[in-house]
Amino acid sequence: MARNGTKPITQIYHAREGVITDAMRRVAEREELSPEVVRDEVARGRLVIPASVNHLSGRLDPMGIGTVCGVKINANIGNSAVTSNVDQEIEKLHEAVHYGADTVMDLSTGGDIDTIRKAIIAESTVPIGTVPIYQAVTEADRLEDLTPDDFVAMIEHQAQQGTDYQTIHAGILLEYLPLTTDRITGIVSRGGSLMAQWMFYHHRQNPMYERFDDICDIFAKYDVTFSLGDSLRPGCLADASDKAQFAELRTLGELTLRAREKGCQVMVEGPGHVPMDQIQMNVEKQQEWCDQAPFYTLGPLVTDIAPGYDHITSAIGAAMIGWHGASMLCYVTPKEHLGLPDRDDVRQGVIAYKIAAHAADVARGRPGARKRDDELSRARYDFDWNRQFELSLDPETARRMHDETLGHDVFKHAEFCSMCGPKFCSMQISRHLGEERPKRIRAEELKLTEAHKE
Q1: What is the pTM of this model?
Q2: What sign does the dihedral 114-119-122-128 (CA atoms) show?
Q3: pLDDT tens digit sequence for 99-115
C-alpha cells in the first residue's frame, strides 16, 4: 500500500489479488503460456510486465520479462549533447523494433529531451525505459546544485510522460565508494558516477536510497517498473566480481523486497564486463540475493580488446548469461566505448543480440525455440533460398549476400551458392546420394531375389 493511502494499480498488485489483467492475457498469448501462469509469476516477482498506465493508453503492446518467458533484448537509443535529433531518434526506434528489440531505452542527454521522449513514447509499441538522473543533470547548472527533491521530481516527471521502466541508481551507497579505488576503470556507469560525484561533494548518503519509499509511491501510482541500476558494475575484466559490485548487489536485493512490499514491479540490472568462467556465478548470486527478480544485463563483454567489435564480444557473454538465467539482455553496438550509435549500429546491435537471446532460449530448452532453426535447415537442404531468407533474422542482408556474387539472375535460384559452385556443394552431393541409395538398395534386393530363385 502506498504511503498516501491509495492502492497501487500495478500488475504485481493485481496479480497478488488474483486478478488476470488484459496485459497478463496478452503476455500469455505472446509467450504461449496460460494466463494463470503469467499471473502467478507476476505475483511472485519473477516476471514483470513494463506497461505504465500512460503508455498502455497509447500504442503499447504489453510484453513480459522473466525466466518463464523467452529471453528479451533491449536497444538503447537517445541523443547526446553534440549530435542527433528527434527524427534520427525515431528512425533508430523503428529500426530497433523492426529487427526485434523487445524494449527500447531513451538515454538522451542533450537538446530538447522532453520533446524527444514524448515522440518516442507516442511512436513506440514496445516498453520505453529511461535513466532519470541524465535529464536531471542536463537541466541543472551544476550537478552539485541538485537537491534530493530535484531527483524525485524528475522521476515523477518521466513517469507522467509514460515511461514504462526507469533505471534508478539507489544501490550505490556512500560507504561503497572507497571499494572502487583499486579498480582499473573505476565507476563506469554514467548514472552511478554522477551519483557518486553528488555524494562525494555533499558527503551525504545517496538521495535515491534515502527517498526510495517516495519513488515507490510514484511507481505504484503510474505502474512504472523499477530497473535497479548496477552503478558499480565492472567496466573491465579485471574489475569483475569485486567487493564493490557485490556490495551494491546485496543492497539491490534489499531494495527489491522493499519495492515489492510497496506493490511495485522490479527487475535488477547486471554487469557489463565479466570473464566467461564467472558468468554463471554472477547469475546465481543475483538470483539468490535479489529473490529471483528478473536479471537485466549489459552484455556482458567477455574480453576488452575489440573496440569496434564489442557487439560481438558482448553477444558471446549475453548468450551465456541468458542460458544461465538472465531474462533480458541490453544490446551493445559496434560503437560501444567509441561514439553515439547511428541507425546502422542499432541494427547490428539488435541482430547480434537477437542471435544471443535465441541461442539462450535453445540452450534453456524453451519449448518451440528450435522450430525456426529446423525449418531453416530444411529449406537450406532443399535449396529453397526464399524460405531461408524469410526465416533469417535479417532477411535483407541474407538475400544481398547470396545474390551479390552470383552474377546472372538464373544462378540466384540454383542448387549451389558462390562458395562451392555446382561441383563442390556438399548438400547437393548428399541429396543425390540420398536419391541414389534407395535405387541401389532395390537393385541389390532384386539381384538377391533372382539368385534365390536360381
Answers
A1: 0.91
A2: negative
A3: 999 999 999 988 889 99
